[in-house]
Amino acid sequence: MTKPVSAKAISEDDIQKIIALAKDAHVHELNLHEGNVHVRVVLTQEAEASRNVPQGLAEAHNLIEVVAPLAAQFLPHHPCRPNSDIKVGQSVRKGDPIGYLLSGPLLAPLVSPCNGVISHLLAEPNIRVGYGTALISIVKKI
Length: 142
What we know:
This protein has 142 residues and is mostly beta strands. The chain has two helices and ten strands, in the order αββαββββββββ.
């Protein structure tokens, strides 16, 4: 659920400028929050494809996004192993756990769909995400 930013924080002119910049950058979604200031930008496929992959990886590699199969809290590690966060640049194999989704008493593992390298963490840790939200991108090894 997105809480709108109060009108006092941003003027209407500022909002129009943000909309124009977002359109120019092919931004698909923009969420703003007040408390603890949280901004989330989701790119269109065209803009996402233009992002850089980690250095040293061949151009022939594919970028794969792992998305949330349910609405839940995204955890980059198992709750019993808080120092086991996944990291950008980390190698993963198909089936490796790369995060968890916590929804009530349910703890669902996210597994890597392929062999590759973690390219980007697209969702903030410990934030509630919606169904289909992109969480992690992996550069697939061919």
